[in-house]
Amino acid sequence: MIDSGLIFKLVKFCVVGFSGMFVDFGTTWLLKEKVKVNKYLANSTGFVLAATSNYFFNRIWTFHSHNQQIVTEYFSFIGISLIGLGINNLIIYLLTDKLKLNFYLSKLFAIGVVMIWNFVMNYLVTFK
Prior knowledge:
Radius of gyration: 15 Å
Strand content: under 5%
Largest sheet: none
Structural class: mainly alpha
Number of strands: 0
Helix content: over 70%
Distance between the termini: 20 Å
């Protein structure tokens, strides 16, 4: 049987991730559509800004971390997120450039996959 505390953390992680999705999509859209930045640079910038805001919300609300090594914890979270960014960009590349799917639909799918990666790794590593 799955631990109800773990499920509650996952739900909270998803809520935080949903707020990060607004940061991610908003930044990506602004940079890609208005500033005319390369779609991968725009995507990466949105992703990193969202990951940073997600770290602070997850530290405080989801995992209630009291780790005094906040810099180490932050870089662990960002490192996991950067691997997630690689997964995210790979999925977007495969779905948009190879399968010719819509960029934002591809990005939404990529976010779902990376959310699972991020939760599991941060639960097991960053906020253990």
